[in-house]
Design goal:
The complex is a heterodimer. Chain A is of the alpha+beta class. Among the domains of chain A are: about 140 residues, 2-Layer Sandwich (Gyrase A, domain 2), CATH 3.30.1360; about 70 residues, Elongation Factor Tu (Ef-tu), domain 3. By secondary structure, chain B is α+β, with helices and mostly antiparallel strands. In chain B, a hairpin with a 2-residue loop joins strand 2 and strand 3. The longest helix of chain B is centred in the last third of the chain and has 9 residues. The chains are: A alpha+beta, B alpha+beta. The interface between A and B is medium-sized, with 16 and 12 residues.
């Protein structure tokens, strides 16, 4: 199979990045090294190529209503705002987790996970309740996307655009020209736990934008960041990775994404199942763990009283704190902060404790 | 990337260097590059009896954990304690300071099937799998 390449591919090669197959895309896993890149985002600013993410536009008089039917969060938000949401199947399992950007009531952008692009688009079209008045278009091949994350992100991006970034709040967005590239969408969103932006750009502007951003960020310590650090950064911020922590068989209530499930809004796919699940209570929950001595990894069993009772979905040693951190499904009886569990790390047992909140919190 | 020709290599990217009746084992420069930043190493116990081809150590990188195989059978007579505090030596000096453990080999002919530096370089060039 030929790997797909983003419009920034040549820039990664020139930078000496190590490239890997990531869900069929040839993407940089690291440039300088995961730990150095992680630190750059936490202390300065990092530039990510996230062009593999999918962009689906929904247009038409019933665009908003169609999206409301597909996602569990309430996207009755103001123009220029965005909303994170699971998109569920009838069983309440997660088809994907995505971000809905509302341009207007009749135009929304949905940013979906790379690995789910085809699945999501087919699902959206098949379940569109208003095919005549809401048109879904997969524009993923027309757009490139970068993320600029870290405390130096606002100053870096501000040097490249006339748009006043102070006017774009967290989960807000605006059309703008960036580094001379017209038709960009600047969104104050991200996957790192830092302040920062994700910028959608017409893919033809890629060669112009990448070096301009690196030049603008030089004074702020910018570095290009690969997928390796993207994963450690999102895990410290306790953000789910689709396919690892959540999937078609996990519900947002189990995954502690209940805040993004609005059971009081009009009907949406999966609502009945989630209403029942909330009433009955879930049997397992995705919890954050501090693990003693060993580094838990995806697939390690979680034990209660010596019996398999759950599974680790993500784990690493936190580059920011040095602690061994993990996400795991634990029985609801052992999901409260302070609960003690055991993780079977490749045959060696490690004690773990459930912790509340994110593993890392920015201090600015 | 170059591989010293004073030792042999396993296709799983360990190197083995003979020192008298001892065999020093480490991982190759290719292995360290694939692993990325190494943050912890689990070494065997001194005195442990190991079987050629079995997993006897683990290297944890930021991304993943990898098994390390011993190319020879025998008793582990030394482990590199310096890696406890400085696992990053695996990244900076995989063929030298970051040796992992030494085995008193029962039968040095077990190394005969390993790759020499040229064959290993070809293996790596072909994808290393």
């Amino acid at each position: 199979m030929t790997l797909r390449r983003t419009p920034f591919f040549e820039h990664h090669k020139q930078a000496g990045a190590r490239l890997i197959d990531f869900g069929g895309w040839e993407l940089p896993v690291q440039y300088a090294g995961i730990l150095a890149e992680h630190a750059a985002v936490r202390t300065a600013v990092g530039l990510f190529d996230v062009s593999h993410m999918g962009e689906v536009f929904v247009r038409g008089p019933k665009a908003l209503a169609a999206v409301q039917h597909l996602v569990s969060n309430d996207v009755e938000i103001a123009d220029g705002r965005a909303q994170y949401s699971p998109m569920c199947n009838e069983k309440g399992g997660i088809v994907d987790d995505l971000i809905v950007y509302r341009m207007a009531a009749d135009e929304l952008l949905i940013c979906v996970n790379a690995a789910n692009r085809a699945k999501d688009f087919a699902w959206m079209v098949a379940n569109n309740p208003f095919p005549d008045d809401a048109v879904f278009v997969d524009e993923g091949d027309d757009w490139a996307q970068i993320a600029l994350q870290g405390r130096g992100a606002p100053a870096t991006l501000q040097a490249l655009t006339a748009a006043d970034l102070r006017e774009i709040p967290y989960y807000g967005h605006a059309r703008a020209t960036v580094a001379g590239v017209d038709g960009c969408i600047i969104a104050r969103t991200g996957y790192t736990g830092e302040d920062g932006f994700e910028v959608f750009l017409p893919k033809d502007g890629a060669d112009q934008l990448w070096p301009a951003v690196l030049a603008a960020g030089a004074a702020h310590g910018i570095q290009p960041i690969g997928l390796g650090a993207r994963d450690t950064l999102r895990l410290e911020a306790r953000m789910c990775l689709y396919g690892n922590d959540i999937d078609d068989d996990t519900s947002p209530l189990e995954a502690q994404l209940g805040w993004a499930v609005k059971l009081n809004k009009a009907d949406f796919i999966g609502k009945a199942a989630l209403v029942a699940q909330r009433a009955a209570g879930v049997s397992r929950r995705l919890v954050g763990l501090h693990v003693a001595e060993r580094i838990a990894r995806h697939g390690n069993a979680v034990l209660v009283d010596g019996q398999a009772a759950g599974v680790v979905t993500s784990g690493t040693r936190s580059p920011s704190t040095g602690e061994n951190i993990a996400l795991a499904y634990a029985p609801a009886s052992h999901a409260a902060p302070g609960s003690r569990l055991t993780v079977d790390v490749r045959g060696k047992l490690a004690e773990a404790v459930v912790v509340k909140g994110t593993f890392y919190k920015r201090d600015y | 990337m170059s591989f010293p020709n004073d030792r042999k290599y396993m296709s799983s990217h360990e190197w083995a260097q003979v020192e008298g009746d001892l065999v020093v084992v480490g991982v190759s420069a290719y292995a360290q590059e694939s692993l990325g930043d190494v943050i912890h190493i689990d070494l065997p116990s001194v005195g442990a009896q190991v079987q050629a081809g079995s997993a006897v150590a683990e290297i944890e990188s930021v991304k993943a954990v990898s098994d390390i195989y011993t190319p020879v059978s025998g008793a582990v007579v030394a482990v590199n304690d310096g890696l406890e505090d400085s696992p990053e030596l695996v990244n900076s000096d995989p063929h030298g300071a970051a040796w992992l453990f030494k085995v008193r080999a029962a039968d040095l002919s077990e190394l005969d099937g390993l790759l020499d530096a040229d064959a290993y370089a070809a293996h790596v060039a072909a994808g290393g799998h």
